[in-house]
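Hey, I was hoping to borrow your eyes for a little while. I've dropped the whole record in just underneath, so have a look:

——
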Amino acid sequence: MECVTRRIRNNKTNKFKMDNLALIESFGDFKDEKGISKIDLMAIIEDSLKTLLRKRYDSDDHFDVIVNPDKGDFQIFLNKTIVEDEMSEDDDLEIEISEAKKIDSTFEVGEEYTQEIPVAQLGRRNILTLKQILATKLQEHNNAMLYEQFRDRIGEVAVGEVHHIRHKHVILLDDEGNEFILPKENQIPSDFFRKGDNVRAVIESVDFKGSKPQIIVSRTAPKFLEKLLELEIPEIQDGTIILKKVVRIPGEKAKIAVDAYDDRIDPVGACVGVKGSRIHGVVRELKNENIDVIQWSKNPEIMVKRALGNVTINKIEINEEGNYALVYTPVEEISKVIGKQGQNIRLASWLSGYEIDVYREKQADDDVELSEFNDEIEEWIINEFKKVGLETAKSVIDKDTEALVNMTDLEEETIEEVKRILKEEFED
């Protein structure tokens, strides 16, 4: 087997070194600012050079690139094969033996001749192209690092200063100049921001938009409330108290279920504090969002009852297969169970994991206001009965249909249908 040797002609000058040095130093500020490691910088420079070589020579297979970031320089070597005279087919890849011997008389055909290519030899246009390639790859590296950094921080609270206020979102900047996007839908309805305000939000997602990572933050996510509680309550932070579940209607109402490993600890009391002192800061951050703290229970009935809050409940039926709960409560408690705009029953359903339906629980002698049937009977019909002093269900049921026809402006068929609906209310 023919032995192939490799010899290097060192034709580097101080001028070429200075060209290389100036090229690397042009990115020195970027390196210092972004904290790119020497290893990463070396890899980026090498990759950039090889990209340029591929553009210039169609391939980088015959080139070696050596980068020394400590000295602030790099070298490009072109490897040529020594061939017989008049046998060279590509002057970029081959050198004839007569030319090689002018350099070193000991050269032989088949050996590899390595020649250093000064950056200046690439030409001004290619050097400018190299700078552009390097700048692009440095930015790509920074974007990748930023993506990895904040992807690992999803679910953490971030603080940013309001930089721009747009119609559909607010742009925040942290202390390092990283940009956060707070969309309108991720803002608490009563949120009001001014430029320069410091805003807390939880990092919700990190995705690439084009070549740049976009960091989305939220103030409406349950995770935001969870993290605020961890910051304000040491027992949650150290694991003494466990946050089992957090649900919320942003800016309106929230419910959290807590538990403790130690039975001697009152998790609800520890979270709320004396006169709500411990949770007050969280409420203020959430624009006076009403927060109910309950103790977690493995028992579904107990959990549903606690989730509904301080209301009178006569009976609860749990359907595990259908994943719903039937709650029976006195008529006067129904509005409390449902809550303002249905908020209480909705949050209780989310917290307990059961879809909750509420029903009126009545005694035999109970009567029901006609207005309670406005979901089944049209309001104008109810008003016709009220005009003649019939305010309750039993007051209508107890009268003959004929008498009701004479008393009101209602048709017999309408009265009969009303009676049917009212009677169903009192059937077992």
